[in-house]
Amino acid sequence: MFGLRQKVNLFIFENKYLILRLMGWVVAISSIVTIGSLVYYHGFPQTPEEQKILLDINRSFFAVFILNFFTRLFFTLERRAFIRSNSVEFTLLSLVVINFISFQLFEFPIIAKLFESLGWEGFEPYYVFFIQCYLLVLIVLEVVKSVQDLGKLKLRPTTIFLISFVLLILIGTFLLQLPALNNGGQLSWLDALFTATSASCVTGLIVVDTATFFNTKGQMIILLLFQVGGLGIISFATFFATFMKKGMGLKQQSMLKELFDNESLLGTVSLLRKVVFYTIFIELVSTILIYNFWGDYAFKSEGEKVFFSVFHGISAFCNAGFSLFTNGLAEVGIQSNLVLHMCIAVTIFFGGLGFPALRDIFEVKNVRERLSKPWKKWKLSTQIAFYGSLILVAFGSLMFYLLERNGVLEGQAGLPVILTSVFQSVTTRTAGFNTVDFSALASPTLIIFVFLMFIGASSGGTGGGIKTSTFVVIFSAILATVTGRKEVTLGRRSISQELIYKAFSVFIFSATFIFVAVVLLTIAEPGIEVTRLVFEEVSAFATVGLSTGITAELSSFSKIVLIVSMFVGRIGVLSLAFSLSVPVRSNSFHYPKSHIMIG
User: Fold this and answer.
1) Are 63 and 11 contacting, i.e. CB atoms less than 8 angstroms apart?
2) Of 349, 90, 396, nearest to 245 (Cα)?
3) How are the residues of the chain apportioned to helix, strand and coil, as percentages rounded to the nearest 5?
């Protein structure tokens, strides 16, 4: 018997990697089937018998995850360390085992009894939802483990970032076409692609009314798309990976450096955790305030009021611009709620300010240091983001008031006029909400707003545009050229030639892309005023989402142009160029200098 046991152990450990590889495939296939069953459960109408079968299938897959965990545990020499490093997975699976044993031996299902103890009558839907969420968490954990292996991929960080958005958009397109996610309408694949791209790229342009076309399930999918799209799939997956045993590799840190425009790889893990913390905190506070600021607006139920609050709070911080009102914030009963408008405007401002700036301004350690050392200032990038945003908001507010005081602002006076002007200026930067009818704005106002949309938000935030830092660097470089200075300086700091080249590259690439897109739109839409087409294109490219009401009327070709514009604007023209370009092997040589006449 002892010899047989030795042979069995020897056989097992000789085939360890084969067994683990097979289990990995089993888990992958099980995860795909589980996700497929969940999509079918929520995306298509079924009979009660079919729903029961699907739920039983979901339950059965718990066995696969349990078997996979204990297989890995069996082949691990340091079992205690393995359990500690996979404590989340171990806890979740232990609860499943305990619930199963308690039901089989004592006919006491713990989860069901939990819902009953909370006083929820008809707990079955909650129980089903709980089980499905439980499975999704386990699948997410498996996905996170695969993210830890991104370093093995021979792809640039910008390319992986680009691919992640393509996958998010395609998944969103598929889900939005499911029949159970709308109120009985028919959504074409192009309109589904447009909506998914708009949500994933936090734009807000719509071809169907989000408020009436989609039901709560569909609106929830849109919410998830702009929440994940606002921070990026890589950010979410890498955040959870930081709690795993392997942590983050250089590939993940490099991706985060590109995503949040960090100065170096140092501090990327800390920055990521701060990003998630600030996101959750600001969205939570915004949701609570919005919930209390709805005023006398009549919601159908308390649940609807909560969902509307969450939706608009997250949409505002992500600068997504999606609203659950047909007319946006210009809806009757909402349009005059100035307190609500200012709450959303502040949330938009923080979302567009950029996570590095939020960290520099609000992190406790930095605040304490500045209190003890009053001469210590914010970082230069933070000053540019904050003061640049304030100047642009003030400029936009003033111009909106001067140009529209006899237009959409006619008949208003005092504080409402000021707050309305401020809100339009804030939202035009990159958010996409509106409290006035943009189709009624004068052409000079639209041109001013095109300028503000083109500049957009600040680096490292959820907004689009060429960014405030790019605009400030270009303006400073032009000023230095005009005044004859050899160095470009900002805040008593010299700006490197590399940053200046990058700023001008972003400007030229963006302006060229918009120019080509506008030409294509004018060819495809000869009956629409050019000013409105320019406004629509810049709104799409800068991921703003404001429209003069022509989006749904555009041809299929024009919608494709806007889809590409939203995608390129969210990814960034330089990121797209870097991911598609061939790296230069060497640039350690110089050609003779030559003089060229300029101007």
Assistant:
1) no
2) 90
3) 70, 0, 30
CA distance 449 to 446: 5
| Interior/surface letters 216-253, b for 16+ CB within 10 angstroms, e for the rest | eebbbbbbbbbbbbbbbbbbbbbbbbbebeeebbebbb
8 Å CB contact between 449 and 546:
yes
Q: What is the 3 state secondary structure string of 281-333?
A: HHHHHHHHHHHHCCCCCCCCCHHHHHHHHHHHHHHHHCCCCCCCCCCHHHCCC
Residue pair 562/540 in contact (Cβ under 8 Å)? The answer is yes
Query: CA 387 to CA 66: how far, in whole Å?
Result: 54
**Six-digit token pair at 446?**
């639209």
Sign of the CA dihedral running 368, 373, 379, 385: positive
| Amino acid code (one letter) for 219 | Q
- Are 391 and 351 in contact by the 8 Å Cβ rule? The answer is no
Q: Can you tell me whether residue 157 is helix, strand or coil?
A: helix
Residue with tokens 């360890």: 16
How far, in Å, CA of 298 to CA of 295, rounded?
9
Strand partners, 493: 490
Identity (one letter) of the amino acid at 496? S
**Alpha helices, DSSP H, located in 405-527:** 415-430, 443-455, 468-483, 497-524
Cβ proximity of 382 and 357 under 8 Å: yes
Which of 308, 323, 317 minimizes the C-alpha distance to 346?
Answer: 317
Average the pLDDT over 429-435 and give the result: 85
| DSSP three-state, residue 431 | coil
Query: For residue 407, what are the contacts with CB-CB under 8 A and spacing of at least 6?
Result: 440, 441, 442, 445
Helix (H, G, I), strand (E, B) or coil at 513: helix
Distance, in Å, from the CA atom of 548 to the CA atom of 374, rounded to the nearest integer, reads 47
300-350 pLDDT, tens per residue?
A: 888 889 999 999 999 999 888 899 998 888 888 888 889 999 999 999 998
Cα–Cα distance measured from residue 435 to residue 442, given in angstroms and rounded to the nearest whole number: 16
Given pLDDT bands bounded at 50, 70 and 90, which one contains residue 556? Answer: very high
The first and second tokens of residue 15, run together, are 């085939």
Measured CA to CA, the distance from residue 105 to residue 101 in angstroms comes to: 6
Nearest to 337 by CA among 357, 319, 312: 312
Where does 354-467 have alpha helices with state H? 355-362, 364-372, 380-404, 415-430, 443-455
- pLDDT class of 262 with cuts at 50, 70, 90: low
Asked whether the beta carbons of 284 and 276 are under 8 A apart, the reply is no
**Tokens found for residue 172:** 């969103």
Contact 262, 256 (CB under 8 A): yes
pTM for the model: 0.83
Comparing 532 with 132, which gets the higher pLDDT? Answer: 532
Instruction: Compute how many other C-beta atoms are within 10 angstroms of the C-beta atom of residue 330.
Output: 17
Tell me which of 108 and 217 has the higher pLDDT: 217
Are 457 and 465 in contact, with CB atoms under 8 Å apart? yes
